[in-house]
Give the backbone structure.
Amino acid sequence: MSSKVVHRRPASGHVSAAIAGLALLVAIAACQRPEILKEEAAAPTNPAATLAAAQTADLAESFSEPFHGFVFLAPLAVGPGDAVTSGNLDPERRFVRLDAVGGRYTSRIVEREEPFTELLPSWNVAAPQGSSFRVDVRVGRRSEEHWSPWLLIGDWGTPVAPRYTRFEGGKVAVDVFESDEPWDRAQLRIEGTGGVGELRLHRASLAFTDDRALAARVTMARTEAWPAPVAVRVPVRSQRDEDAEIAGSVCSPTSVAMVMELNGVDVPTAQLAAEVRDPTHKIFGNWSRAVQGAFTHGVPGSLVRISSWDAVAEFLQRRMPLVASIKAGEGELAGAPYSKTAGHLLVVTGIGPAGQVMVNDPAARWPGDVRRVYRREDLERCWFESGGIAYAFDPMPARVETSFEPSAGHELQVEAE
């Protein structure tokens, strides 16, 4: 189980939405069809929105997500309104270069038709050894021309101080912005804070949720038709195999390591745990750090939010098991190796013919017991009601080279601030 005690508001309050970004969407469309445990996989429901349309569209419907919203930012969508200071856009639009000290990417203003109360960002940044960066967000309302202050929502390398994470209208709860008030626009900013050379921003995204309507959406999900069976056989690991000091806290890096191994990247769980540990909050279960940590080993990914089994099936059809963030009250998850959990992560690997959900649960006492089958209704309560947060990693061969030589010069300036 994770050391990340769920920091959300009680059962009514949980995070925002999405799929993994335009780069991920393109990677999904381009990759060969996966070898899955199913004779024939159905074609994706909406395989292709064009690149231009996807740059401004909410990508949620591209993977049958009817509730949570998602917008991809850099690098493919860099354009009017985006700003790069002390950096430039790669000529092939593969990434945004930023100086390790002072390089800054500020996204365009993302406006939403529907209001949101929670904002969940994620990012993939290639950073040289010893470099650091920070990630900030702000939210606003069009009707009032009002903006919140910039709020720190993540960092990498040397922790940022001081840490401004709240104002009168909301706060950052470790890795997600939460508010009791509705907002309808947002921005994200990534800035180099130390080291030498350059950072490379390969992906950034924002996910949006109106927590006030989540319960009604989950109720609707319970009546929807169950998709055709599909599964991916993911390597198994037990977090209980790790040192006793961390074994009860590393469900997140253990789950990520299983999916990375599926994609051909075998990293010891203890090593990954040390790399993604949040030194400020002293937890291994920081969501955005988990995604960034996998990227440092060449495995791109994003945070998504799910409220539909059709969406889960589409990810699995694309050979993308989901690392799901759950919480469960006493006895709410039948067959689990724990009676309850305030915060835990496991890998959703498949769906069976009659409401069964196949998982790799790292809390099992030994690797041979990691593969389990849980019930649809239990995961709707423990996962969807808790916000449907998941890590989605690009299938092979979509690995990215994250070690590189610094570039010479800063041609191709992009709309300096």
Summary: The first helix runs from residue 22 to 30.
